[in-house]
């Protein structure tokens, strides 16, 4: 099984490690230290060897930070982790703070004192975020001090091994374009802006650009490494020697020089007089300082891989359709199991996770999960990013709701789906909330929109029915998804937060409105959908883009209050379920197929 159910975090970590860190800081002449969640590659999901925030505090969420001072400390998380952080971090040692509202800069401004020396690791902070931290610290009279060695690494005695998975080719039948073509295309873009090279630090960008995949990050087939792409299409790829095979070098070709990771710094130092593009959102401050010291002219700009990677080509979209059809059959088998064996009131969250994983494994195509499944029974479903452990494992009790958010990694695509089902009989309130969430999901699925529209402009559609009932949810409505890459990718998203990236054809994005009643239940309905090219609407004046739904699995009919749906919304549900039956039905047999036929019949 891919997923484990131990809790790698918890308050004991902070109690054990915080005094040790303070002792090390004092010995180094420091009054504090900033601990971001990010690693050297700005990963969302951090390998255990680089999860310094978890080591310091016990918090294991995918977004957060901490500040440790001599006599106080704080941990910062966003709205997704309000409950989790209180369960994992000792409130007597760390003050709980909001990561978004003020965040670390506000804390430094409030708690910093004249003469304080607060350390930071320049490889873990983007230059923009570091500028904000520096201004805040200096506003209180404190000073930020860059450190050549991270003090946590110096005292982390039982540090897990640094990941060294082999880097392997990703065949062109899946990528739809050769790596040489991608490098040439992006190299031409560098020429157009008179740049000599770009330093690429994002593992996802490296995987896409060189048509390779790795295994250094759990649930995401990423290789940890760096690259320099030049305007003539040639490149240097920096990887630890243990990750490189003769087959990989042959696959990359003679225009790509594979070099040991230790040669990255000397290569940057040799770029004197070169115009070098660097993305301040993905490259840490360390790169900027190295290139500045070398005498290079730094051109700040978005990683040129990000947008092409987001706009999937025909082969990638076709592969994603196949992956979702395969995955949909596995999920439908699981939903049938939930509708039968899962209704006893004795099944637990971990058993449900394992059952779903086994159905996916039965496809014989599953490479990994795309993230640890969120298996939330009753009140655990109200914890947006809940991760079940042996300590929190809860029964799927009758008269409750069960939320399961999960996904798979396949060579041809990445999936992410959430379904909410009733265990026993649901209350009228549960059905009302479910139907409101469904109405928002349908609105975002059916919308047509002109070129230049951003996800930020569409977000309210998914919330309208909830708002009408005085309800809302505190997470984004949609995130980008890769193709056998990250289950979360940019630059696009659908959220209240302003995003200037327009939705473009080929972008895959989730559609996942929800509702969460703390201490009671959670509801989320999530499909992935791909942006379709602009086409005319009869009688209209402008071509409009739209969405094609990729995810294929039934939505719980027993939770839908039909009278709350419009005729168009009912038609959408019936049409979607007809497609599910058409695509998934032939893959099932026996009782599961009979169940699916009933689960997808018209409302």
Kindly describe this structure.
Belongs to the peptidase M24B family. Residues 543-603 form the Peptidase M24 C-terminal domain. Keywords: Hydrolase, Metal-binding. It holds the Pfam family Creatinase_N_2. Its EC number is 3.4.-.-. The chain is α+β, with helices and mostly antiparallel strands and 603 residues long. The protein has three domains: 11-155, Creatine Amidinohydrolase, Chain A, domain 1; 168-309, Creatinase/prolidase N-terminal domain (Creatine Amidinohydrolase, Chain A, domain 1, 3-Layer(aba) Sandwich), CATH 3.40.350; 311-593, Alpha-Beta Complex (Creatine Amidinohydrolase). Helix content is 35%, strand content 20%. The protein has 19 helices and 27 strands. The strands form eight sheets. The protein has a six-stranded mixed beta sheet with strand order 4-3-2-1-5-6, with helices on both faces. It has a six-stranded mixed beta sheet with strand order 12-11-10-8-13-14, with helices on both faces. Strands 15-18-19 form a three-stranded antiparallel beta sheet. A hairpin with a 2-residue loop joins β18 and β19. α14 crosses α15. The radius of gyration is 25 Å and the shape is globular. The mean pLDDT is 97.
Write down the Rg.
25 Å
How are the strands of the biggest sheet laid out side by side? 4-3-2-1-5-6
- Number of distinct helices: 19
Low-confidence stretches: none
CATH class of the largest domain: Alpha Beta
Helix/strand structural class: alpha+beta
- The beta-strand count equals 27
């Amino acid at each position: 099984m891919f997923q484990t159910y131990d809790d790698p975090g918890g308050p004991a970590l902070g109690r054990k490690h915080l005094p040790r860190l303070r002792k090390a800081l004092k010995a180094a002449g420091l009054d504090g230290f900033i601990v971001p969640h990010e690693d050297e590659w700005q990963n969302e999901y951090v390998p255990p060897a680089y999860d310094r925030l978890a080591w310091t505090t016990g918090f294991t969420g995918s977004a957060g930070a901490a500040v440790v001072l001599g006599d106080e400390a704080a941990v910062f998380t966003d709205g997704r982790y309000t409950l989790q952080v209180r369960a994992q971090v000792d409130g007597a040692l760390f003050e709980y703070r909001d990561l978004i509202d003020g965040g670390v800069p506000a804390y430094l401004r409030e708690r910093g004192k004249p003469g304080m020396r607060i350390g930071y690791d320049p490889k873990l902070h983007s230059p923009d975020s570091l500028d904000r931290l520096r201004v805040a610290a200096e506003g209180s009279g404190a000073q930020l001090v860059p450190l050549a060695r991270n003090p946590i690494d110096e005292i982390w005695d039982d540090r897990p091994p640094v990941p060294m998975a082999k880097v392997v080719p990703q065949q062109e039948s899946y990528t739809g374009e050769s790596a040489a073509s991608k490098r040439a295309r992006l190299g031409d873009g560098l020429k157009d802006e008179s740049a000599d090279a770009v330093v690429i630090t994002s593992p996802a960008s490296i995987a896409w650009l060189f048509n390779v995949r790795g295994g250094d990050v759990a649930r995401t087939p990423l290789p940890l490494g760096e690259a320099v792409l030049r305007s003539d299409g040639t490149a240097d790829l920096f990887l630890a020697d243990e990750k490189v095979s003769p087959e990989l070098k042959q696959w990359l070709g003679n225009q790509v020089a594979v070099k040991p990771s230790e040669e990255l710094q000397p290569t940057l130092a040799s770029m004197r007089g070169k115009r070098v593009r660097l993305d301040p959102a993905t490259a840490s401050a360390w790169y900027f300082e190295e290139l500045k010291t070398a005498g290079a002219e730094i051109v700040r700009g978005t990683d040129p891989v990000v947008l092409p990677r987001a706009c999937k080509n025909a082969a990638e979209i076709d592969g994603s359709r196949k992956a979702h059809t395969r995955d949909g059959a596995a999920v439908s088998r699981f939903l049938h199991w939930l509708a039968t064996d899962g209704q006893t009131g004795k099944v637990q969250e971990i058993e449900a996770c394992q059952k779903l994983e086994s159905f996916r494994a039965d496809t014989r195509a599953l490479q990994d999960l795309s993230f640890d499944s969120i298996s939330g029974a009753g009140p655990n479903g109200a914890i947006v990013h809940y991760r079940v452990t042996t300590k929190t494992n809860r029964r799927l009790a009758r008269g409750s709701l069960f939320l399961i958010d999960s996904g798979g990694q396949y060579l041809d695509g990445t999936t992410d789906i959430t379904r909410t089902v009733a265990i026993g009989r649901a209350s009228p309130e549960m059905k009302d909330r479910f139907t409101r969430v469904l109405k928002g999901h349908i609105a975002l699925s059916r919308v047509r929109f002109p070129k230049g529209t951003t996800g930020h402009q569409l977000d309210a559609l998914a919330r309208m029915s909830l708002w009408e009932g005085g309800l809302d949810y505190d997470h984004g409505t949609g995130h980008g998804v890769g193709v056998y890459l990250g289950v979360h990718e940019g630059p696009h998203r659908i959220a209240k937060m302003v995003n200037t990236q327009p939705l473009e054809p080929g972008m895959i994005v989730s559609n996942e409105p929800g509702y969460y009643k703390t201490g009671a239940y959670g509801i989320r309905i999530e499909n992935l959908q791909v942006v379709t090219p602009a086409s005319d609407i009869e009688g209209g004046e402008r071509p409009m883009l739209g969405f094609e739904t990729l995810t294929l699995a039934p939505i719980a009919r027993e939770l839908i209050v039909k009278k709350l749906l419009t005729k168009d919304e009912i038609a959408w549900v019936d049409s979607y379920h007809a497609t599910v039956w058409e695509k998934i039905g032939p893959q099932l047999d026996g009782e599961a197929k009979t169940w699916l036929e009933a689960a997808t019949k018209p409302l």
